[in-house]
Design a protein that fits this description.
The complex is a heterodimer of chains A (about 325) and B (about 300).
Chain A: H1 2-19, H2 25-56, E1 59-60, E2 68-69, H3 73-80, H4 82-94, H5 97-112, H6 119-131, H7 134-144, H8 150-157, H9 174-200, H10 203-211, H11 216-244, H12 248-253, H13 266-275, H14 281-305
Chain B: H1 15-61, H2 80-87, H3 93-124, H4 130-142, H5 148-158, H6 167-179, H7 186-197, H8 201-209, H9 214-225, H10 227-243, H11 246-251, H12 260-270, H13 275-295, H14 297-309
The chains are: A mainly alpha (about 325), B mainly alpha (about 300).
Subcellular location (chain B): Cell membrane
Main location (chain B): membrane
Family (chain B): Belongs to the binding-protein-dependent transport system permease family.
Chain lengths: ~325, ~300
């Protein structure tokens, strides 16, 4: 998918270069005039945070007085802080949601890829949580999780829960309860991407295999799944990185790591150091940097697990 | 299995035709069974996905009763909670709606105009530094930007967007402060560049030979032909701006300036005595996004796929 796209666009670029408007000072100025407003905001709000944020991680800074270089002091403070470690552990625990959400999304995509009557309704229905804000979704689920609430009655009805207590109030279950909401909200998003991936797999190949006597599961494991590999890479990459950076759903449903710090995430730590009252932007930037490095590492793991997203089919 | 539903013609003496008809019948029956099972699973998932919304709607319409319990129908209907949300709180709900609308209009306008402009030279013009700019933007997309919230907060303050002078200018600056950090959308740039690359070069050449200025080519050729992508992107951005809450909550000191999503959290925090009114607020927050999503769904899904395929 990606390599093919790049090849086409390069050739395309070449073609433009060959026949397009010639390079003159005037044309160059016009080109930059088109891009100028975009580039200014891009540098200000995308490039500058990367640069200045990396610098801030090595300084003491509270906005009022200028940043003061302190070397690795922030990182030493960070790694000595049990609260940060617990946040990082929770962020890593959150990655557990990734395989679950990917497997379910693939299954749901296979299901809604069937030419059934009314399938459009189901695709739309599954997508509604995706377009709803975490602020709203988080509120709704914190009501559903209340004592005597809908989730508890379902769980008790199924015999999965004995005492009626809120899952969000219990340190052993709070993080998993929020994870379920992430799962619920994310399935529709990945389903659409997998649906696009499925439509990219050649029908003829699957049909040829079926005619040659392959069973349904053989077709799935040997043709469909390898064909989905580029999509799996993109989706697992996206969901791993957002799992490590988990913040908004926790912020709404379990403020300040409630209960007992059991839902404190690494980015929540960074957030509270900056905006929780002490304006320790240096420490917050250092924590963000650690999160960034961890998500890069996990991105690389994703690449190797999906063999770089190359499809064999 | 001998079956009365077999067509009469298949019952003639030819055993092969009979067998074929039986096999076909068997396959059809299995197919029906499989479809039935598929529908059962589809409906179950749909219930899990939609019930939370339905529950919120039902509960927001009830005047009294056991608030958090699971329910299928409301015990009684009343608009009291909806009136309450507008009048019974310290958070001015009309103002929140107005803020959200202004932020969305500004945000969607900025992002689409900036991206449609900037993507044009990158797709269709030759100039020094083009590949450099393109690949730098690619790298920015991959680089994790966790410091965004922290540094953008500092930038916003340094730009003086939170200064206090007179109410009207303050409001304008605060809206800008909410909108600007997202206004240069890298995803949008990619989508638009891809759309422009699909437009025949001959059209552009012909216009250039006729002496049309680049701005005219952009407006008269590129924009109309890229309309589906622009629509997809605009809907994506509308959803993003309507739903954003964290940035606004972090940055805006004045609670009257909050957009709906952010204000809803404020409401649930300061107004915990009446959760039903907060539920009514949640319903009001969801409705516009649902309308826009359902209307532009076809474009929306396309845009989403394009955004990932790059």
């Amino acid at each position: 998918m990606t390599t093919k796209g790049r090849r086409v666009s390069r050739r395309e670029q070449h073609r433009i270069g060959g026949t397009g408007a010639s390079v003159t000072v005037r044309n160059t100025l016009i080109a930059y005039a088109f891009m100028l407003p975009f580039l200014i905001l891009l540098v200000l709000y995308h490039t500058w945070p990367v640069i200045f944020g990396s610098y801030l991680a090595f300084t003491k800074y509270n906005i009022i007085s200028p940043p003061q270089w302190v070397g690795l002091a922030n990182f030493r403070e960070l790694f000595a802080d049990e609260q940060f470690w617990s946040g990082l552990r929770n962020s890593l625990k959150y990655v557990l949601v990734v395989p679950v959400i990917q497997v379910i999304s693939i299954l749901v995509a296979l299901l809604v890829n069937r030419p059934l009557r009314g399938i459009g309704f189901f695709r739309t229905a599954y997508y509604v949580p995706v377009v709803t804000s975490f602020a709203v979704v988080g509120l709704i689920w914190s009501w559903l999780y209340k004592q005597g609430g809908a989730v508890n009655s379902v769980l008790m009805g199924l015999g999965l829960m004995r005492g009626d207590h809120s899952l969000l109030d219990n340190p052993a279950t709070a993080l998993f309860a929020v994870m379920f909401v992430t799962l619920w909200k994310g399935i529709g998003y990945y389903m659409v991407l997998y649906l696009a991936g499925l439509q990219g797999i050649s029908r003829e190949l699957e049909e040829a295999a079926t005619i040659d006597g392959a069973t349904r599961s053989q077709v799935f494991w040997n043709i469909t799944l390898p064909g989905l590999r580029p999509t799996i890479l993109v989706c697992s990459l996206l969901s791993t990185i957002s799992a490590i950076k988990v913040f908004e759903e926790l912020y709404v449903m379990t403020p300040n790591g409630y209960p007992a710090g059991s839902t404190y995430s690494a980015l929540m730590y960074s957030f509270s150091k900056a905006f929780g009252g002490d304006f320790n932007f240096g420490l917050a930037a250092a924590a963000s940097m650690v999160v960034a490095v961890v998500s890069i590492l996990f991105g690389l793991i994703n690449f190797s697990l999906t063999k770089g997203g190359r499809s064999d089919a | 299995m001998p079956d009365t539903t077999l067509p009469q013609t298949a019952l003639v003496s030819d055993p092969h035709a009979r067998l074929a008809a039986q096999l076909k019948e068997q396959r059809l029956r299995r197919e029906r069974l499989r479809n039935g099972a598929a529908y059962a699973v589809l409906i179950l998932i749909a219930l899990i996905m939609l019930y939370p919304f339905y529950w919120t709607l039902v509960t927001s319409l009830e005047p009294t009763g056991n608030i958090y319990e699971a329910k299928i129908l409301p015990t009684a209907l009343s608009m009291r909670n909806y009136l309450e949300v507008f009048s019974g709180t310290t958070v001015p709900f009309w103002r929140l709606i107005l803020n959200s609308v202004i932020i969305c209009v500004l945000g969607v306008t900025f992002t689409t105009v900036l991206a449609t402009l900037a993507a044009y030279p990158l797709a269709r013009m030759r100039f020094p530094g083009r590949d450099l700019i393109f690949y730098s933007i690619l790298i920015l997309m991959v680089l994790p930007n966790e410091s965004g919230l922290i540094v953008n907060y500092i930038t916003t303050i340094k730009l003086g967007l939170l200064q206090q002078t007179n109410p009207l200018a303050d409001a304008a600056r605060q809206y800008l402060a909410v909108v600007l950090p997202g206004a240069a959308s890298i995803v949008g740039l990619f989508l638009l560049r891809q759309a422009y690359l699909g437009i025949p070069q001959e059209l552009i050449e012909a216009a250039r030979i006729d002496g049309a200025p680049e701005l005219t080519i952009w407006r008269r050729i590129m924009l109309p032909l890229a309309t589906p992508t622009i629509a997809a992107f605009a809907i994506l951005e509308f959803v993003a701006y309507w739903n954003s809450f964290l940035w606004a909550r972090v940055m805006l000191p004045d609670k009257n300036m909050l957009p709906l999503s952010a204000g809803l959290l404020e409401l649930s925090g300061t107004f915990s005595t009446n959760s039903r009114a907060v539920m009514a607020g949640a319903v009001i927050t969801i409705i516009p996004i649902l309308i826009v999503f359902l209307m532009g769904q076809k474009y929306f899904m396309k845009g989403l796929e394009g955004a990932v395929k790059g």
